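Suppose you are handed a protein chain with no further information: no name, no annotation, nothing but its sequence. What can you learn? This example shows the usual starting point.
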Amino acid sequence: MALKVLIADDERLFRQSLRKLIESEKDIKVVAEAGDGQEAVLKAQEKEPDIALLDVRMPKMDGIKAAKLISSLVRKTKILMLSIHDDDEKIISALRAGATGYILKDADQKDFIEIIRHTHLGKARSSPYLAHLTLNQTPGHDSLSEEERKRHFSQKYSLTEQELKILHLLAEGLSNEEMSRLVNLSRETIKMHLKALFRKLQVKNRTEAAVLAVREGTG
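A reasonable first move is to predict its three-dimensional structure. Written in structure tokens, the prediction is:
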């Protein structure tokens, strides 16, 4: 049975191009298109796709609100956000709302298709176009308290208490300057801690670090 995909983006030309790319694969079928968030939710309920590709910014209802509704109304559907920026704070909100990950719109065509397939199968895929998500969490992770999750996370990645605090602020969307004021450290020291965090978490940027924190329940 073909993997069913919904495409939601307010740019018709992009939707058409993406549909052509996806349907060049024999095992994937586009079952619906939507030009705004409201239409995406309705089409998702009607077609029950395996994967919903949602633009972060759409008229009537943005991708974040649409992701939240789709994830609650159509539980079988996995959501991937589409964005032109890899540091878009809206992506973090979308992941909190139930999205599985995101793909940059300038992704390589082959990589784009493979990300869709891997997401459907629940497999992690390392890509410069996809937020690095830890899909295999520790058994019983959801039953842990917030403090237990933080402690486990710190031990797993060998984080200091200060690094964990900065990661939490990063996941909340604070800038370096705002973090500097809150933890009473210079901006240069904040940058130093962020570099150490990225290295320990094996991520490339602020968004991926924040995504990992959110997915692990520590953000």
